[in-house]
Write a structure and sequence with these properties.
Helix content is 33%, strand content 22%. The protein is an alpha/beta fold. Strand 1 and strand 2 form a beta hairpin. Helix 4 crosses helix 5 and helix 18 packs across helix 19.
């Protein structure tokens, strides 16, 4: 394989790496002949679907492969030193010193019973045994300051559960950077974080790398994130490298159909499409690796051509610093252009809502309070989780609910489902006061409102067959019909034979299809989709989103779509409501809100979305400081003012009502909505103050 040269000597050189795992029926190759370089100071991104070999490759680099995984061939050199020959003890001296890693979930990385300062200090002492206790403590405080954690002296004495998700990830970064390593490996470092916190964490990583000069390998399934962050990137599939290239070049002109398919599967906030491109099929079982090109069974360009079926394409040069493992890379551009043409929606083709559409779900001034703790002679404190939530959802439409973790989205879903009792307000389902129903009438009406949860693994009973899983709600209602279950499986793109198998035998995307089939069993009017696609790879996510839109068109379904992924919300929703600290702060038609956001919180959310068009460029964005305020003691006036880049003294005195401030039907709760700044507001207030 030919690898492009570069003036700077690479920090990491991986050549012809292969990793096998023994099985009862032979050897399975999980990583096959992988080669790449990481240069000083650069960000090298590795993307691909689950099971493509990304994380296993970097575990091999770190010397963390667990038995029975084994490197069978190849070389890994760090600063010219061969790592594959080193013992575990020798690798321990390198990990955390010359190279380190930031894992996906900070709660599994941090020890919940040790103080934050002790955990960072341990990383310092391990590689600096002669350092005094005072010097270690000073280094811990310096690291906490470096990653942007305020009050480091106090924070160092706290435990991980006292930190927010974003702050915990900052602590993990501080541990990883404790000894200023040359190479930082970030394995899905922001997957579990909100988009605003993700932007903060990536800004911290960029600042630290700039100070220390460290190179970074970024492993992620978020193509938008890698587009904005990486200098160069590689795409993996079936344990092989499909393409390597400068990031900007790859997103502008991919040279492999798998790369192009991933890019076209991405929902985007800057365009409307009739449907997302969806790579057909699923990631192959590597124990039964396809002949020829490992991607050819799913490749729309292959068309059964003999070279694709019979010959494994080498990773070869197709341009300056560009490699592709495709027999026909010159055809990719034309194929991608045709896909974009097929799914494009012409400007002005979006139809306005039909007049007179019936109201399916109407929410009026919904409130939810929780009792927190208890006083010795009192009733304890009360936390307002939902405050004055109102909306009117028409039949066949989708309302997107967005906002950071803790804003009240999932609480709202649980109140709508009657899994939690409301503290005030009304909910009308098909015109009937849903919150007032009891007994048999409530059980009867529950079938009109169903839910699809985020994690299909925990939603489906692994002991039951798929047929039994879908049949359960029908049996409860006394309406079991075997033919109905076969029909539901067909609706979600599965065969009746799938009903004989159990959930663990299916992929994540197939499990989510089964969960959707179960939710549809009782012919509901409304589906609440709570992060229903967030756990899926981008290509499988596109399949499920297309399925949801098809079902909505065919069955007249109405959706409440809860997500932290604003790009997905932009694609699937008709209206969007933005929530902050239990309150809707902006609500309107999705296109209007995304193209002309009126509230500064919405503007910050949209600004934080990584976009493929920004590959390799530093783009200006709004980075919110801090985390959500404590809902037990929310700020006076506008709850967002403590993080708002437009806040003035008046914001602390006035809580703006949700009202149409910039356009009819576009509601916002901000004194300076849209383009109105503090000066305009001051001018509006001046006559009143003079008269008073």
């Amino acid at each position: 394989m030919s690898v492009p040269t570069h003036e700077a000597e690479p920090i990491l050189v991986v050549r012809n790496l292969s990793i096998d795992i023994p099985k009862a029926d032979g050897i399975t190759r999980l990583v096959d002949d992988v080669s790449f370089d990481v240069r000083p100071g650069e960000v090298f991104g590795i993307v691909g679907e689950s099971g493509s070999g990304k994380s296993i490759t970097m575990q091999a680099v770190l010397g963390l492969l667990s038995s029975p995984l084994k490197i069978t061939s190849g070389s890994i050199k760090l600063r010219g030193r061969e790592l594959t020959d080193l013992s575990f003890e020798e690798m321990r001296k390198i990990r955390g010193k010359v190279m380190s890693i930031v894992f996906q979930d900070p709660m599994t990385t941090l020890n919940p019973v040790l103080r934050i300062g002790a955990q960072i200090g341990e990383a310092v002492r391990l590689h600096n045994p002669s350092m005094s206790k005072q010097d270690v403590n000073r280094r811990v405080l310096d690291l906490l300051s470096l990653v942007g954690i305020p009050n480091p002296e106090r924070r160092a004495r706290q435990f991980p559960n006292e930190f927010s998700g974003g702050m915990r990830q900052r602590v993990v970064i501080a541990i990883a950077m404790a000894n200023e390593p040359d190479l930082l490996i970030a394995d899905e470092p922001t997957t579990a974080l909100d988009v605003t916190i993700q932007a903060q964490v990536m800004a911290v990583l960029a600042e630290i790398r700039q100070r220390t000069g460290a190179a970074m390998v970024l492993i992620t399934h978020d193509l938008g994130l890698v587009a904005e962050t990486a200098d160069r990137m590689a795409v993996m599939y079936g344990g092989r490298m499909m393409e390597t290239s400068p990031a900007r070049t790859m997103f502008e002109a991919p040279a492999h159909p798998y790369t192009a398919g991933l890019i076209e599967s991405l929902p985007r906030i800057d365009r409307s499409v009739s449907q997302l491109y969806s790579i057909p099929g699923f990631v192959p079982d590597l124990a039964n690796r396809p002949s020829g090109c490992v991607f050819h069974p799913r490749c729309a360009m292959s068309n059964g051509r003999a070279p694709c079926r019979e010959q494994q394409p080498p990773l070869r040069e197709v341009g300056e610093e560009r490699l592709s493992a495709c027999h026909f890379p010159e055809e990719v551009a034309a194929w991608q252009a045709e896909q974009e043409r097929l799914i494009a929606v012409p400007d002005g083709s979006v139809q306005p809502p039909a007049a007179g559409a019936s109201s399916i779900l109407k929410v009026e001034a919904l409130e939810k309070e929780f009792k927190v703790g208890s006083a010795f002679f009192g009733k304890g404190e009360r936390m307002k989780a939902l405050r004055g939530i109102s909306f009117d959802l028409k039949q066949g439409k989708t309302l997107g609910l967005v906002g950071e973790s803790g804003c009240g989205k999932s609480t709202l879903a649980r109140v709508l489902l009657r899994l939690l009792d409301a503290s005030g307000g009304n909910v009308f389902l098909n015109g009937e006061p849903f919150l007032e129903l009891k007994g048999s009438r409530l059980r009867e009406r529950r079938r009109d409102l169903q839910v699809v949860f985020q994690d299909p693994y925990s939603s489906l009973d692994p002991r039951m067959t798929v047929h039994e899983v879908i049949a359960e709600p029908l049996r409860i209602q006394g309406k079991y019909d075997a033919a109905r279950i076969d029909q539901l499986l067909e609706h979600v793109g599965l065969t009746p034979e799938a009903g004989k198998r159990r959930p663990p035998e299916f992929s994540g995307g197939q499990k989510q299809r089964i969960a959707i089939a179960r939710a549809l069993a009782l012919n509901p009017d409304v589906l609440i989709l709570d992060e229903a696609v967030s756990a899926l790879d981008v290509s499988i996510q596109a399949q499920v989103i297309n399925l949801l839109k098809t079902l909505q068109a065919e069955l007249g379904l109405t959706y409440v779509f809860i997500s932290h992924d604003l790009s997905v919300v932009r694609h699937i929703s008709d209206e969007v409501a933005v929530m902050y600290l239990g309150r809707i702060v902006e609500h309107g038609p999705v296109r209007r809100v995304f193209e002309h956001p009126a509230h500064p919180y919405t503007q910050a959310l949209l600004s934080a979305i990584p976009q493929r068009g920004h590959a390799g460029t530093a783009t200006e964005r709004i980075i919110l400081t801090g985390d959500l305020p404590n809902p037990m003691s929310p700020p006076s006036g506008c709850a967002f003012r403590t993080r708002c880049f437009r806040a003035v003294d008046e914001c602390a005195r006035v809580e703006p009502e949700l009202a149409p401030r910039t356009a009819p039907g576009h509601l916002s709760a901000c004194l300076f909505a849209g383009e109105h700044g503090p000066e305009a507001y001051a001018r509006q207030r001046q006559p009143e103050e003079t008269d008073a």
